[in-house]
Design brief:
Layout lengths: L3 H12 L4 E2 L2 H4 L17 E2 L4 H14 L3 E4 L18 E4 L6 E5 L4 E5 L4 H10 L2 E2 L12 H6 L7 H4 L2 H4 E8 L4 E4 L12 H5 L7 E9 L1 E2 L1 E11 L2 H15 L3 E8 H10 L13 E10 L6 H14 L5 E4 L3 H12 L1 H8 L2 E7 L5 H15 L4 E7 L4 E7 L8 H20 L15 H7 L2 H14 L21
Parallel strand pairs: 2-4, 3-4
Antiparallel strand pairs: 1-2, 5-6, 6-10, 7-11, 8-9, 8-10, 12-14, 12-15, 13-14, 16-18, 17-18
Helix pairs in contact: 1-3, 9-11, 9-14, 10-13
Cofactor: FAD
GO molecular function: catalytic activity; FAD binding
Organism: Qipengyuania citrea LAMA 915
């Protein structure tokens, strides 16, 4: 336990008044996670402006034994960037590190600092006729460092993969203040372990990402967005396979949602309306794209895909957006599901994945089991069917009291869901990370060998246990006494 006053003076001397603060009013917004589930305390808020300042500050923390919770946009879903309630940790914000260091148009690569906001990254790429092929609802606040640290996904994973697939190189500060410089991408490099992959998805427990080199993609010339009515999620699975076979790489996104989710959005956004006249049990949001200079055949492809799908009875109804504004309105419906459901009341949200071939079976089998086992609940699963990841929400009964229900019945529901996911060979965290919310469940259900390897790596890279303690890596079970 460090002398707080001594540490404060040293940190302020290192980073200056803008770089370190203990002002409660400035600290308060960053002490609670985006979902409002976790609130902690902190010694202070550090906001360095360069990798060297990060390294110096980490060395200072190591010297004083002060734990560090790195934070980007504070938009995570698992409490991974929130300090605990001891008040012993310091928040290290990367939000002032916003430089785009280099953009190479010919190789379609960009090097930027960890505090760059996703929306800013999109805009920088677009100015050069390129794009960064990862987007999500929180693009206005999520940062590059946070996206890398949680290996974020999004609506374009079907074609382009998660954040891990976009990262070509990383710069990171390790627990002792050393700087890992791995920004230069090489197509072939067999000098041992791919260390950047160890850091991606590590949620700030192994190192603090300060910059990254990312892969860009050609700009989209045109896109066609369709809203489709379906009899059920099994039909959605058949339609997905049809689209993959017919459209190939032109298939950019394939999202699914049940009628309840659409109804919730329409109630939440009263100025919106359903794209289809009739109601359907499930819906799909499908996007097909063509690169600039190769758009001539897109309309023909779209026509072929949906006409043959209708002939094969793979959908009940469909409408194709007439223009870009309508296409955006379709996507706005999808992106509004989470806030719409949050407005309804308490829910247990599960970010799960199972093998793509078994997702429909999982939803159709497990959902009624939950609603029977926990009377009054309603299951709503939506999301990225094409990569086997759905956001599996269990809504509380109408009379449930927020806060009490989650602690009493909610935890039992989550354990039941995670048990079923494990039986299906899936993951209890598809794209939102483990954080503190799922750490114990990972310890309960994770493969013992994998957990042992994670603990060994954590011990090797952070022997003092100062980087984001209590997150991601489950503690080893106590050794049984004879």
């Amino acid at each position: 336990m460090t002398d707080a006053q001594t540490f404060h003076e040293a940190a302020a001397g290192l980073l200056g008044p803008r770089g370190f603060t203990c002002d409660p009013d400035l600290l308060d917004p960053w002490l609670t996670d985006w979902r409002g589930r976790y609130t902690g305390r902190a010694l202070g808020l550090a906001s360095p402006t360069s990798t060297e300042e990060v390294a110096q500050f980490v060395r200072l923390c190591a010297e004083h034994g002060v734990p560090i919770v790195a934070q980007g946009g504070n938009s995570g879903m698992s409490g991974g960037a929130t300090p605990d309630d001891t008040g012993d940790s310091v928040i290290l914000s990367l939000r002032r590190m916003t430089a785009i260091r280099h953009l190479e148009k010919d190789s379609m690569q960009i090097t930027c600092e960890a505090g760059v906001i996703l929306q800013t990254l999109h805009e920088a790429a677009e100015k050069e006729g390129l794009r960064f092929p990862l987007t999500l609802g929180g693009k206005g606040s999520a940062t590059v460092g946070g996206l890398i640290s949680t290996n974020a996904g999004g609506t374009q994973v079907l074609r382009h993969g998660t954040m891990r697939a976009q990262v070509l190189g990383i710069e990171a500060v390790l627990a002792n203040g050393d700087v890992f410089s791995g920004l230069v991408p090489l197509k072939k490099d067999n000098r041992g372990f791919d260390l950047k992959q160890v850091l991606i998805g590590s949620e700030g427990t192994l190192g603090i990402v300060t910059a990254a080199t990312l892969q860009l993609a050609p700009a989209i010339g045109e896109r066609r967005v369709a809203w489709v009515g379906l009899a059920g999620i099994a039909q959605a699975r058949q339609l997905l396979m049809h689209c993959e076979q017919q459209a190939g790489d032109a298939l950019e996104g394939f999202e699914v949602l049940p009628r309840h989710c659409l109804d919730a959005v329409l109630a939440y956004l009263p100025d919106t309306r359903s794209p289809l006249e009739n109601e359907h049990a499930w819906y799909a949001l499908i996007e097909l794209v063509a690169p600039a200079g190769a758009t001539d055949g897109l309309d023909t492809l779209v026509e072929t895909v949906f006409e043959t799908a209708m002939e094969r009875e793979l959908l009940e109804d469909a409408v194709i957006a007439a223009n870009e504004s309508q296409a955006e309105s379709f996507w706005h419906l999808r992106e509004s599901i989470s806030p719409a459901e949050r407005a309804i009341g308490p829910a247990m949200q599960h970010d799960i994945s199972v093998p793509v071939s078994r997702m429909a079976e999982f939803v159709e089998t497990v959902s009624p089991q939950i609603e029977t086992r926990f009377p009054g609940t309603l299951v709503a699963g939506f999301g990225h069917l094409g990569d086997g990841n759905i956001h599996y929400h269990v809504l509380a009964p109408e009379a449930a009291v927020a806060g009490e229900w989650e602690e009493r019945e909610g935890k039992a529901i989550s354990a039941f869901v995670h048990d079923r996911v494990t039986e299906y060979g899936g993951s209890l965290s598809a794209e939102h990370g483990i954080g503190q919310m799922k750490r114990d469940e990972l310890g309960r259900l994770g493969d013992p060998v994998s957990l042992r390897l994670m603990r060994s790596i954590k011990q090797a890279l952070d022997p003092q246990g100062l980087l984001n303690p209590g997150k991601l890596v489950p503690l080893a079970p106590e050794t049984a006494r004879p």
